[in-house]
Design goal:
heterodimer, A: alpha+beta, Penicillin-binding protein 2a (Domain 2), Beta-lactamase, 3 domains, 25 helices, elongated, B: about 375 residues, mainly alpha, three-stranded antiparallel beta sheet, 15 helices, 3 strands
Chain lengths: ~650, ~375
Amino acid sequence: MDWLNSHARGWRRSGNAMSAFGSRELRNPDREVFFFRRRLSVAAVLIFAAFGGLLTRFFYLQVTQHKHYETLAETNRIAIVPIVPNRGVITDRNGVVLAESYSAYTLEIQPARVRNLDETIDALGQVVEVQPRDRKRFRKLLEESKNFESLPLRTRLSDEEVARFAVNRYRFPGVEIKARLFRQYPFAEMASHVIGYIGRINDRDVSRIEDWDETTNYKGSDYIGKVGVELSYERELHGTTGVEEVEVDAGGRAVRTLSRAPPMSGNDLRLSLDIKLQEVAEEAFGDRRGALVAIDPANGDVLAFVSKPGFDPNLFVDGIDPANWEILNESPDKPLLNRPLRGAYPPGSTIKPFLALGALTSGKRTPSQAIHDPGFFQIAGQAHRFRDDKPGGHGTVDMYKSIVVSCDTYYYMLANDTDIDENARFLSQFGFGQRTGIDIEGELTGVLPSRAWKRNRFSAAQYREEHRKWYLGDSISAGIGQGYNAFTPIQLAHAIATIANNGVSFRPHLVKTIRNAGTGAVTEVVREPERTIGLRPEHLALIRNALVGVNKEGTGATAFRNTAYVSAGKTGTAQLFSLKGEKYSASRVDERLRDHAWFIAYAPADKPRIALAVLVENGGFGAQAAAPVARQVMDYYLTGDQKKPATPAPAAAPADSEDESD
Amino acid sequence: MGHVLAQIWEVLTRRIDGFLFAIALSIVGVGLITLFSATDQNVARVSSQLGSLGFALVLMWLVANVPPQSLARVAVPLYVVAVAMLIAVAMFGTVVNGSRRWLNLGVARFQPSELMKVALPLMLAWYFQKFEGRIRWKDFVLTAILIAVPVYLIKRQPDLGTALLIGAAGFYILYLAGLSWKIILGLVIVAGAAAPLVLQHLHGYQRERILTFLDPSRDPLGAGYHATQASIALGSGGVIGKGWLNGTQTHLDFLPEKHTDFIFAVFGEEFGLIGAALLLLLYLLLIGRGMVIAANASTLFARLVAGAVTLMFFTYAFVNMGMVSGLLPVVGVPLPLVSFGGTALVSLFIGLGILMSVQSHRKLMNT
């Protein structure tokens, strides 16, 4: 105890009655080091004591109690096994099942416990059927697996195969038959971009689960939503994992269940989609590529959501085999691209009614103000002619006629008289250039051009001021929906639905209700309007009247002849190929470079129940390619008529005196 | 050519303490071998740990080449940054496993409490170096606040284990700086008296773990499961162990967190008492070397930092092995240089780098 006493003396001698640190007042460096070393020595003694304590404990556990713990380890037969919950069912708005889970037997291998994998798989091939693609998929899973978990070699075994393996089980240590839940998508390609699919959990998914703080709940789960509603509503669909206490034998196989906390199934989703309407819409496309989004304007329900071509989500559930993946991933038709969300196309003439509405609202145009259309427009002092699609022009054109016949010159002039930034501000109220916020992931914003946008877009070092500056010519092109404009089909559908609903917009949504699996309580997903755009009723009435005119006497009239309802629409053509003033001729342009055809519409005109946007890739004129698709969908939805309307007359023989331009 | 290589070798090794380095690498080696077994022979996990090791060695070398006086200069900014980051975590940190401990830096997630493990001892050592000779009650109160702020911030993440460890690191500096034994005794009494009160304010799982430690049969399949299964693993290992890759507790998945906090149970099961004693010896050698370096350091700052780093190594090793063998309650502390995890490995090697810096810059400053 000498060190302690001398220490205490030290601070008493210092004369500082209130010192917390005994030795500090002594300025002698040697004494300082001496005190420090003494403190270290005390620590060293404590460390020896602590490690001595550990060693004693180890001795107690590993020598004195060894027999006891050895017995415990041998009889350590109680394992805690997670029970994976049933994933929620996805149905369409009428209860038709679009995705459901079922239980099936799988043949699984624990690679860590198998000596020679190839030999084992060969031997297994004599007991159950093992296809080359099963092997390939297994190899791929093996490369991706990190924890040397149990991996499926074959899925969906027949009862006979299960029986045959059971007899031969002793030959295959590390191989087991397990009952697993699988996901099935009965409609295969139909609505595949909406429903999406589930797939095996990978590293990215693991960190997602960690961020949700759901690691425990995903114990035992092998699958997670990857795309579509399966992804965006993963946490509703998954459910709560149960726990089972089982007695296991020396090899780790379950022998007897001791206790069980049952899992809670995931919640069921009812989509706003009408799968019958979806079918009609997909068939209307035939083999053509494109997109269609149909919305109930009164509440934002997405009634149909087409992205053609689609893919079979069932291929992805067990891990897609490389051959099929290559086909899907490398096809020039891009079947994996979700076109309504991720395809950004110039809107073409479909933008015209919105620009007209903007000009009315800002007072830059009155309804009766008419122009003379000579068939082209020139910026003052420039030689370049912005051409109208109709050579010679449409004559005298007021606002109504400009929409009905889709007069380009009218909108060249309108763009010339309005400001691009003001137009962008007005259009953004309809959701152009923004995500609509639909409840599946991956939506693009598109491009709503403005001065600020262009400056930002060309801000990189390789561009110069002349690239960044906004030119009047840019505005003129934007006036007919060409140039920098690029919008997604969901944006156009959302915008026309907003017109149909008199300026009150709803966020589009695919999931209508969620049914809680435990309580049975049903909750609606979206009910409140997103925003109300300040529009004068007489302006809106003029535009809506003109859109009815399009389908009655204008560019949409051929496709909408003799409907049982009054419809409103607007055609559009998104130019892909710049012809530098030459006359466009579909037959002379390669099919993939042909224009995209647009049609936006709603019906019935007075009290709209459906609003939609159709895009047919490389379809040519909107009136010919896209409008008939819209007609078939609206016919079915409004009258139940599933018959294909008569094929519209070819372009060479226009029904009305109006031309077929947009 | 040979001359150039010799020069490179000289630059690489000049500041490296061979003994400390050899012991540390031996412990890491034990860790990698055990990790391979604990992860069911997962090569990816082992190579990931090797990658972290490479990064940690580079940092160790860099820190070893920084003179202690430069470390003293960055002490204050480092501490301020670490506290600011802890506050940022409290405000908009990423939640993982129910605790808000991570700061998302865009490219990577970062745990500021790890930075504090280095920053707090440096800060306190700087303080004592600066005010050497006139340490009064107010200095004690001030240093206590310097310790209390980060400890409180980390405790409410909640991460009780790390909070206690950082508190311990601060206490070690005070102790080595000569905190009066009366106060130390007083602190022990206050801590003892406050324990039941603290227990009441702990988060659910923390209280559960401590209560379970006091009575493991309370919840044999829940919180007590870890402790029970770890004891079975160690005990059934016996004197010589079941052999590498042969631990039944490990490979039949009875052991939880077997590659991180509970890796010592895997080691003890497969290598027995002999292995455990050898590992204890390695830690003892590492700590002993650290103490020698601290005792011979030439400035107060260097002495205090080296001493605290050494005592922290001891604390990690003791708390982890104590927890796995059932001597202490289950707190989330990894076994130093052995448990899987890049962040911990990096901070530990930075600690070794500090020790090496103190040792190798000693002569330059001796007068």
